């Protein structure tokens, strides 16, 4: 059971890194960027290439993946800027980008999925009593929670975070005060994409990299955003850990119903509290 908990917490950390950027983007600029899952995939592939093919250290590879995905996010922001406030068009653009980026990934790295990365200094496990927790999963959880604290500080304790929160509440009033909200939105887009790239790099330790990841990871990230609440870092973290644990337990006890359990949780939250655990009400 402790092994299942460790797996759930590690998955929760990956889901948080993936969903945090998506949640902030949707809250800050009202953009439903479903191509965020493709950014995660790029981070996983870049990290795999740099560690396995080039022999670069995992830390440098993950940072490089975050930088590459930040640049990709900058390009995506320019595309989504063309259709602000148009969710139907944003969804169509997102799915188009998912297919384009997935096919580009197949062209560059091939159609065969890449196995989880093997990093020598993260081999082995931490043994507590009769329970062995893989060191790689502990590293994923540590990175996830460290970035959660960093994002919370940026959102709640900095001027940029105050502008983002103000933009969530009333973008027009924020702009009327002379604040360049568009520049902040670009920064949030790049930051969210970089975090997704880091999530892909760290997630590759246990999930590898494949062109099917944009949809696989995105569905879980959307559940996290709905349950946690749009634009809330603490809510996203709590929801990610809860969903990671629930997914791990359900796959262990009744694997054929694992996905159903997650979507039932999302439906229940929508019925009881549509804004999510910590989301802002209209």
UniProtKB/TrEMBL annotation:
Cell compartments where the protein resides: Cell membrane
Record-level Gene Ontology MF annotations: transmembrane transporter activity
Keyword terms: Amino-acid transport, Cell membrane, Membrane, Transmembrane, Transmembrane helix, Transport
Coiled coil: none
TM ranges: 56-79, 91-109, 136-154, 184-207, 219-246, 258-276
Main location group: membrane
Signal peptide boundaries: none
Keyword Nucleotide-binding among UniProt keywords: no
A Gene Ontology cellular-component term: plasma membrane
Protein topology in the membrane: Multi-pass membrane protein
Matches recorded under InterPro entries: ABC_transp_permease, BCAA_transport_permease
CDD domains, sorted: TM_PBP1_LivH_like
Gene Ontology biological process terms in this record: amino acid transport
The family this protein is said to belong to: Belongs to the binding-protein-dependent transport system permease family. LivHM subfamily.
Protein name, per record: Branched-chain amino acid ABC transporter permease
